Amino acid sequence: MSILLPGARLPRNGNPLRMLFSPAPWRATGYLAGHLAAGPVLFAVATAAVLAGAVFSQLTVTVALIVGSAWVVRCCAQVERGRAALVDEPIPYVYQEATEPGFAGHLKARCTDPAFFRDCCYLILLFPFLLLLDALALAVWLLLLTGVSLPLWFWAVESRLAGGGRMEGVRLGRSDGTGIGVWIDTWPAALTASAVFLVLAAYASYAVVAAARVQLTLAHTLLRPPPDPLAQAKRVLAEPGPLSSPLSSPLSPSRPVPGPTAHGGQNT
After folding, report:
1. In terms of Cα–Cα distance, which of 37, 23, 116 is closest to 69?
2. Among 14, 28, 153, 237, which residue's Cβ finds the most Cβ atoms within 10 Å?
3. Where is the composition biased (Low complexity) (predicted)?
4. With contact defined as beta carbons under 8 Å apart, do 79 and 38 qualify?
């Protein structure tokens, strides 16, 4: 049994070519690329908010700023919860409500909420790992897709030769021509290379989808409320039982019990 969430919009297809042309790898590409663009911004904002809250916590006159720092981290986490809709349903969330009046009550609710620390873990601590994962997956994936499109643009490129000259076409390998490589300077060579890259991209589509599932699993693990250990017991208690209806209870007779009447105590 896989520990990764499948993702409602990341169905797996057993045929590599069908997988390549299905929406799953393209949704995964958008999800990973979105984190490459928004992740550094969210990391910088969340880190600045946490550091500012840690500094301001030393001053008793800046309680409102500490509460604001926690609110900024929450907003950053909400962005990541909403981005999950690209590959799955939006991630639910639950935060503690302030039970005491005033800024002190809000400060206690924000800074002691376990959800706040889970948000910081995802946005700050896991950012380097997720950035590396997204960059590697997208680099391989987009490189193979570029190879598939070789027939569209190889004729417009000039590659440099080892002796300093130039030659029309694309060289797959060392660009200076000193190492192992293949020249793509004719249409048959471009079509052959494109077919090879197409097969490789079909199998690489599984990798990019797997990378999106890894990130989605981490997001669900940290950004959604933890499961209630008593949820099953509460559900059983909420469901109607065999004693909930008086008609089905063995202690409630379904017909009146015969008894003495007003005429001499005998039944008619």
Report:
1. 116
2. 28
3. 240-252
4. yes
Q: Are 53 and 66 in contact (CB under 8 A)?
A: yes
> Quick check: is 196 in a domain?
yes
Number of structural domains the chain divides into: 1
Taking the model in full, what pTM does it have?
Answer: 0.78
Residue 101 lies in a domain: yes
